[in-house]
Amino acid sequence: MPGKMLNEVTATRYITPLREGGSLPGLVEADDLGTYVMKFTGAGQGRKTLVAEVVCGELARRLGLRVPGLVTIGLDPVIGLGEPDEEVQELLKSSGGLNLGMDFLSRAIGFDALAHRVSPEEAGKIVWFDALVNNVDRSWRNPNLLVWQGDLWLIDHGATMIWHHNWPGAPASAARPYDASDHALAPFGPDIASAAAQLAPLITGELLAEVTAEIPEVWLTDEPGFDSADALRRAYAEPLLARAATIHERIEIGEVGAK
Ligand SMILES: Nc1ncnc2c1ncn2[C@@H]1O[C@H](COP(=O)(O)OP(=O)(O)OP(=O)(O)O)[C@@H](O)[C@H]1O
Ligand SMILES: [Mg+2]
Element (H or E) spanning 241, and its range? Predict the structure, then answer.
Protein backbone atom coordinates (compact mmCIF):
# COMPACT_ATOMS: atom_id res chain seq x y z
CA MET A 1 0.00 0.00 0.00
CA PRO A 2 1.52 3.37 -0.98
CA GLY A 3 1.65 6.38 1.29
CA LYS A 4 3.49 7.37 4.36
CA MET A 5 3.22 6.04 7.87
CA LEU A 6 3.15 8.04 11.08
CA ASN A 7 6.57 8.67 12.58
CA GLU A 8 7.46 6.25 15.34
CA VAL A 9 9.18 7.26 18.57
CA THR A 10 9.90 5.43 21.81
CA ALA A 11 8.69 6.57 25.22
CA THR A 12 11.54 7.29 27.60
CA ARG A 13 9.72 8.82 30.57
CA TYR A 14 6.19 8.98 31.86
CA ILE A 15 5.69 12.54 33.10
CA THR A 16 2.15 12.86 34.42
CA PRO A 17 -1.44 11.86 33.75
CA LEU A 18 -3.76 14.45 32.14
CA ARG A 19 -6.46 14.23 34.74
CA GLU A 20 -9.26 15.83 32.75
CA GLY A 21 -9.17 13.06 30.17
CA GLY A 22 -11.67 10.26 30.76
CA SER A 23 -9.33 7.72 29.20
CA LEU A 24 -6.40 8.86 31.37
CA PRO A 25 -4.11 10.07 28.60
CA GLY A 26 -0.61 10.80 29.87
CA LEU A 27 2.17 13.19 29.11
CA VAL A 28 5.34 11.40 28.06
CA GLU A 29 8.79 12.23 26.87
CA ALA A 30 10.21 10.30 23.92
CA ASP A 31 13.62 9.43 22.50
CA ASP A 32 13.37 12.32 20.01
CA LEU A 33 13.17 14.63 23.06
CA GLY A 34 9.61 15.53 22.12
CA THR A 35 6.80 15.79 24.68
CA TYR A 36 3.61 14.00 23.67
CA VAL A 37 0.11 13.47 24.89
CA MET A 38 -0.07 9.68 24.84
CA LYS A 39 -3.24 7.66 24.36
CA PHE A 40 -2.95 4.04 25.42
CA THR A 41 -4.01 0.84 23.68
CA GLY A 42 -4.82 -0.56 27.13
CA ALA A 43 -7.40 2.17 27.89
CA GLY A 44 -11.19 1.64 27.95
CA GLN A 45 -12.27 1.22 24.32
CA GLY A 46 -8.77 0.14 23.39
CA ARG A 47 -7.27 0.37 19.96
CA LYS A 48 -10.43 1.46 18.11
CA THR A 49 -10.22 4.78 19.89
CA LEU A 50 -6.69 5.16 18.58
CA VAL A 51 -7.70 4.17 15.05
CA ALA A 52 -10.39 6.86 15.17
CA GLU A 53 -7.80 9.42 16.30
CA VAL A 54 -5.56 8.56 13.35
CA VAL A 55 -8.30 8.51 10.69
CA CYS A 56 -9.97 11.72 11.88
CA GLY A 57 -6.78 13.58 12.76
CA GLU A 58 -5.08 12.84 9.47
CA LEU A 59 -8.26 13.55 7.50
CA ALA A 60 -8.91 16.86 9.28
CA ARG A 61 -5.34 17.92 8.65
CA ARG A 62 -5.72 17.26 4.93
CA LEU A 63 -8.85 19.40 4.92
CA GLY A 64 -6.84 22.31 6.29
CA LEU A 65 -8.08 22.09 9.89
CA ARG A 66 -5.58 22.38 12.72
CA VAL A 67 -4.78 19.11 14.52
CA PRO A 68 -1.68 18.44 16.65
CA GLY A 69 0.84 16.23 14.84
CA LEU A 70 0.41 12.49 15.42
CA VAL A 71 3.08 9.84 15.99
CA THR A 72 3.11 6.28 17.20
CA ILE A 73 4.88 5.70 20.48
CA GLY A 74 6.53 2.42 21.37
CA LEU A 75 6.09 1.65 25.06
CA ASP A 76 8.07 -0.70 27.23
CA PRO A 77 5.82 -1.08 30.30
CA VAL A 78 8.97 -1.12 32.42
CA ILE A 79 8.93 2.70 32.44
CA GLY A 80 5.77 2.54 34.55
CA LEU A 81 7.22 0.37 37.31
CA GLY A 82 8.00 3.33 39.51
CA GLU A 83 4.56 4.89 39.11
CA PRO A 84 2.98 5.49 42.50
CA ASP A 85 -0.54 5.68 41.03
CA GLU A 86 -1.90 2.16 40.64
CA GLU A 87 -4.34 3.10 37.89
CA VAL A 88 -1.50 4.58 35.84
CA GLN A 89 0.70 1.56 36.49
CA GLU A 90 -2.05 -0.81 35.30
CA LEU A 91 -2.58 1.26 32.17
CA LEU A 92 1.12 1.25 31.30
CA LYS A 93 1.35 -2.49 32.02
CA SER A 94 -1.49 -3.28 29.64
CA SER A 95 -0.23 -0.97 26.87
CA GLY A 96 3.08 -2.52 25.82
CA GLY A 97 3.85 -2.01 22.13
CA LEU A 98 2.50 0.73 19.87
CA ASN A 99 0.40 3.56 21.26
CA LEU A 100 -0.67 6.93 19.90
CA GLY A 101 1.10 10.20 20.56
CA MET A 102 0.07 13.72 19.79
CA ASP A 103 2.22 16.86 19.87
CA PHE A 104 1.70 18.53 23.22
CA LEU A 105 0.53 22.09 22.73
CA SER A 106 2.23 23.64 25.70
CA ARG A 107 0.14 26.31 27.47
CA ALA A 108 -2.88 25.76 25.23
CA ILE A 109 -6.15 26.66 26.90
CA GLY A 110 -9.52 25.00 26.60
CA PHE A 111 -11.97 26.67 24.22
CA ASP A 112 -14.56 28.83 25.95
CA ALA A 113 -17.48 30.04 23.83
CA LEU A 114 -17.82 33.17 25.95
CA ALA A 115 -14.17 34.14 25.64
CA HIS A 116 -13.35 33.29 22.01
CA ARG A 117 -14.88 34.34 18.73
CA VAL A 118 -15.04 31.91 15.84
CA SER A 119 -15.96 32.99 12.31
CA PRO A 120 -18.98 31.37 10.63
CA GLU A 121 -16.56 30.07 8.01
CA GLU A 122 -14.29 28.26 10.48
CA ALA A 123 -17.24 27.07 12.60
CA GLY A 124 -18.88 25.72 9.43
CA LYS A 125 -15.82 23.71 8.46
CA ILE A 126 -15.46 22.17 11.90
CA VAL A 127 -19.16 21.31 12.22
CA TRP A 128 -19.17 19.85 8.71
CA PHE A 129 -16.11 17.74 9.50
CA ASP A 130 -17.66 16.53 12.78
CA ALA A 131 -20.82 15.60 10.88
CA LEU A 132 -18.76 13.65 8.36
CA VAL A 133 -17.09 11.52 11.02
CA ASN A 134 -20.13 11.60 13.32
CA ASN A 135 -18.25 13.16 16.21
CA VAL A 136 -20.49 13.22 19.28
CA ASP A 137 -17.75 14.63 21.47
CA ARG A 138 -17.50 18.32 20.61
CA SER A 139 -20.39 19.66 22.65
CA TRP A 140 -20.41 22.89 24.64
CA ARG A 141 -20.06 20.70 27.75
CA ASN A 142 -16.87 19.11 26.45
CA PRO A 143 -15.64 21.02 23.38
CA ASN A 144 -12.36 19.14 22.78
CA LEU A 145 -11.06 22.30 21.16
CA LEU A 146 -7.89 24.02 22.31
CA VAL A 147 -6.84 27.60 21.75
CA TRP A 148 -3.11 27.80 21.13
CA GLN A 149 -1.28 30.89 19.92
CA GLY A 150 -4.61 32.47 19.08
CA ASP A 151 -5.84 29.61 16.86
CA LEU A 152 -8.35 26.81 17.35
CA TRP A 153 -6.97 23.26 17.38
CA LEU A 154 -9.03 20.08 17.22
CA ILE A 155 -8.33 17.26 19.68
CA ASP A 156 -9.93 14.05 20.89
CA HIS A 157 -11.47 12.15 17.98
CA GLY A 158 -11.75 8.89 19.90
CA ALA A 159 -15.56 8.93 19.95
CA THR A 160 -16.22 9.22 16.22
CA MET A 161 -17.30 6.82 13.45
CA ILE A 162 -19.59 4.89 15.78
CA TRP A 163 -20.13 2.44 12.91
CA HIS A 164 -16.70 0.88 13.42
CA HIS A 165 -18.10 -0.84 16.51
CA ASN A 166 -20.58 -2.75 14.33
CA TRP A 167 -19.36 -3.20 10.78
CA PRO A 168 -22.39 -5.11 9.41
CA GLY A 169 -24.56 -2.11 10.37
CA ALA A 170 -22.10 0.48 9.06
CA PRO A 171 -23.94 1.49 5.83
CA ALA A 172 -27.20 2.09 7.69
CA SER A 173 -25.45 3.88 10.54
CA ALA A 174 -23.51 6.09 8.14
CA ALA A 175 -26.74 7.13 6.41
CA ARG A 176 -28.04 8.79 9.57
CA PRO A 177 -28.23 12.57 10.07
CA TYR A 178 -26.01 14.54 12.44
CA ASP A 179 -27.50 16.51 15.28
CA ALA A 180 -25.30 19.54 15.88
CA SER A 181 -27.62 21.31 18.34
CA ASP A 182 -25.22 20.77 21.23
CA HIS A 183 -22.08 21.40 19.18
CA ALA A 184 -19.65 23.81 20.83
CA LEU A 185 -19.63 25.95 17.67
CA ALA A 186 -23.38 25.93 16.99
CA PRO A 187 -23.76 29.42 18.52
CA PHE A 188 -21.36 30.91 15.96
CA GLY A 189 -23.64 30.62 12.95
CA PRO A 190 -21.62 27.89 11.17
CA ASP A 191 -21.71 28.36 7.39
CA ILE A 192 -22.32 24.72 6.52
CA ALA A 193 -23.13 25.30 2.85
CA SER A 194 -19.87 27.03 2.15
CA ALA A 195 -17.90 24.44 4.14
CA ALA A 196 -19.54 21.61 2.18
CA ALA A 197 -18.83 23.32 -1.13
CA GLN A 198 -15.15 23.62 -0.24
CA LEU A 199 -14.51 20.39 1.64
CA ALA A 200 -16.77 17.70 0.16
CA PRO A 201 -14.96 17.66 -3.21
CA LEU A 202 -11.68 16.99 -1.39
CA ILE A 203 -12.98 13.71 0.05
CA THR A 204 -11.99 11.23 -2.64
CA GLY A 205 -11.21 7.54 -2.61
CA GLU A 206 -7.59 8.44 -3.18
CA LEU A 207 -7.43 10.81 -0.21
CA LEU A 208 -9.12 8.27 2.06
CA ALA A 209 -6.72 5.53 0.93
CA GLU A 210 -3.85 7.82 1.91
CA VAL A 211 -5.41 8.53 5.30
CA THR A 212 -6.29 4.94 6.14
CA ALA A 213 -2.81 3.79 5.07
CA GLU A 214 -1.54 5.64 8.13
CA ILE A 215 -3.38 3.36 10.56
CA PRO A 216 -0.77 1.10 12.14
CA GLU A 217 -1.29 -2.45 10.92
CA VAL A 218 -1.18 -3.93 14.44
CA TRP A 219 -4.39 -2.05 15.34
CA LEU A 220 -6.23 -3.66 12.44
CA THR A 221 -5.56 -7.35 12.99
CA ASP A 222 -8.17 -9.94 14.01
CA GLU A 223 -11.24 -7.84 13.28
CA PRO A 224 -14.15 -10.28 12.82
CA GLY A 225 -15.35 -10.37 9.19
CA PHE A 226 -12.12 -9.04 7.67
CA ASP A 227 -9.34 -11.20 6.31
CA SER A 228 -6.77 -8.46 5.87
CA ALA A 229 -5.78 -5.11 7.30
CA ASP A 230 -6.27 -3.53 3.89
CA ALA A 231 -9.86 -4.78 3.69
CA LEU A 232 -10.48 -3.08 7.02
CA ARG A 233 -8.79 0.10 5.79
CA ARG A 234 -11.25 0.14 2.88
CA ALA A 235 -14.12 -0.37 5.31
CA TYR A 236 -13.08 2.80 7.12
CA ALA A 237 -13.01 4.74 3.86
CA GLU A 238 -16.43 3.63 2.56
CA PRO A 239 -18.84 5.31 5.01
CA LEU A 240 -16.83 8.53 4.85
CA LEU A 241 -16.91 8.57 1.07
CA ALA A 242 -20.64 7.81 1.14
CA ARG A 243 -21.36 10.60 3.65
CA ALA A 244 -19.22 13.34 2.13
CA ALA A 245 -21.43 14.36 -0.78
CA THR A 246 -24.70 14.92 1.07
CA ILE A 247 -24.10 15.07 4.81
CA HIS A 248 -24.55 18.86 4.79
CA GLU A 249 -28.24 18.32 3.97
CA ARG A 250 -28.61 16.21 7.10
CA ILE A 251 -26.94 18.42 9.70
CA GLU A 252 -29.58 19.45 12.21
CA ILE A 253 -29.02 22.55 14.28
CA GLY A 254 -32.13 23.06 16.37
CA GLU A 255 -32.33 25.11 19.53
CA VAL A 256 -28.79 26.13 20.37
CA GLY A 257 -28.11 24.91 23.87
CA ALA A 258 -25.09 26.95 24.87
CA LYS A 259 -26.44 30.47 25.14
N1 LIG B 1 -2.22 17.91 22.13
C2 LIG B 1 -2.54 18.44 23.31
N3 LIG B 1 -1.89 19.52 23.79
C4 LIG B 1 -2.20 20.06 25.01
N5 LIG B 1 -3.16 19.56 25.80
C6 LIG B 1 -3.86 18.48 25.39
C7 LIG B 1 -3.59 17.87 24.13
N8 LIG B 1 -4.42 16.81 23.97
C9 LIG B 1 -5.16 16.78 25.09
N10 LIG B 1 -4.84 17.77 25.95
C11 LIG B 1 -5.46 18.02 27.27
O12 LIG B 1 -5.82 16.79 27.85
C13 LIG B 1 -7.23 16.69 28.03
C14 LIG B 1 -7.69 15.28 27.73
O15 LIG B 1 -7.44 14.97 26.37
P16 LIG B 1 -8.53 14.23 25.50
O17 LIG B 1 -9.79 15.01 25.51
O18 LIG B 1 -7.94 13.94 24.19
O19 LIG B 1 -8.69 12.89 26.34
P20 LIG B 1 -9.90 11.91 26.60
O21 LIG B 1 -9.50 10.92 27.59
O22 LIG B 1 -10.38 11.39 25.31
O23 LIG B 1 -10.93 12.91 27.22
P24 LIG B 1 -12.47 12.97 27.48
O25 LIG B 1 -13.03 11.63 27.25
O26 LIG B 1 -12.52 13.43 28.90
O27 LIG B 1 -12.93 14.03 26.53
C28 LIG B 1 -7.81 17.76 27.11
O29 LIG B 1 -9.04 18.24 27.56
C30 LIG B 1 -6.73 18.83 27.14
O31 LIG B 1 -6.86 19.64 28.27
MG1 LIG C 1 -11.61 15.12 25.69
Answer: helix 229-244
For ligand 2, a single-atom ion, the residues with CB < 5 A are: 144, 156
DSSP letters spanning 172-184: HHHTS-EE-TTBT
Per the CB < 8 A criterion, the answer to whether 62 and 202 are in contact is yes
Q: Where are the domains of the chain?
A: 7-103, 109-252
Strand order in the sheet with 145-148: 109-110, 145-148, 151-154
Q: For 4-43, write each residue's pLDDT tens digit.
A: 789 999 999 999 999 777 789 999 999 999 999 999 999 9
Strands 7-17 and 26-30: antiparallel
Mean pLDDT score, 88-96: 94
Name the closest ligand to CA 39: 1
Residue 155's nearest CA partner among 208, 95, 111, 92 is: 111
Distance 154 CA to ligand 2 centre (A): 10
Helix (H) or strand (E) holding 17: strand 7-17
Single pTM value for the model: 0.96
Find out whether the beta carbon of 23 lies less than 6 Å from any atom of ligand 1: yes
Distance CA 102, CA 95 (A): 16
Give the strand pairing for 26-30 and 97-103.
unpaired
